Amino acid sequence: MKHNIITATAITVFALSGIIFWETGFAWLIFIAIALAYLALTAYGSFKIQANYFLTSINRGKRKSIALTFDDGPDPETTPMILDVLKEKDIKATFFVIGKKAEKHPELIRRIDEEGHTIANHSYSHHYLIAFFSTEKLKKDLVLCTSTIYEILGKTPKFFRPPFGVTNPRYARVLRDLKLDSVGWSVRSMDTKAKSKYEIINRVISKLKAKDIVLLHDNRKVTADSMEDLIEHCLQKGIKIEPLSKLIQKEPYE
């Protein structure tokens, strides 16, 4: 992983700098600069899932189409609204669900599945400090989400999206152990901050191109309101919308 390469490089540069500059009086300034640069790169890698810094995520597809993905559901108010539009337009999407929400709304999980969409793991708790969980605690959280989905559908999801798109070395170990594929995105709708559906539509359409994975949230009414127009804009531009599994050519379940 890039993190290991950069860590090894930083250590090497640090050691060489000590040898070369120790007697100049500038060694500590150089050490501080190296440390700050290393911390900045690590922070960037943590928050930029597309950087594949700690682990390799699937951020784009392999076909000349796009996929719609939804995080943070299911939501009893807005998820059905989105499903209604997807059904009307005959579009299949992927829902990265939060385990504790799936547990509360199993009927929505079943509906998503019955209508031909994919259910994927987005952690059980979606805790705001999940990036700081120990390896053991993180693994238990992801396993609990998977088991919740399995209890409802009898299917074991293979796709996982880290909450907030944040990664670290613990995620790399846990995903490897659980044989989960990390899925990122290439187009972020910013629907969590949008004040109108037009902000979402304009942002997505202006950036959209073949092989893109679009990040949306099915717990936002503004997102639900935008779906019909967003899909129509895609179709009018000749952009084909396919299931994520078809776009990235991977099976969604074990």
TrEMBL record:
Residues 64-242 form the NodB homology domain. GO terms for molecular function: hydrolase activity, acting on carbon-nitrogen (but not peptide) bonds; metal ion binding. SUPFAM superfamilies: Glycoside hydrolase/deacetylase. PROSITE patterns: NODB. Pfam families: Polysacc_deac_1. One of its GO terms (cellular component) is membrane. InterPro entries: Glyco_hydro/deAcase_b/a-brl, NODB_dom, Polysacc_deacetylase_ArnD. GO terms for biological process: carbohydrate metabolic process. The chain crosses the membrane at residues 5-22, 28-47. Keywords: Hydrolase, Membrane, Metal-binding, Transmembrane, Transmembrane helix. It comes from the Bacteria. This is Polysaccharide deacetylase family protein.
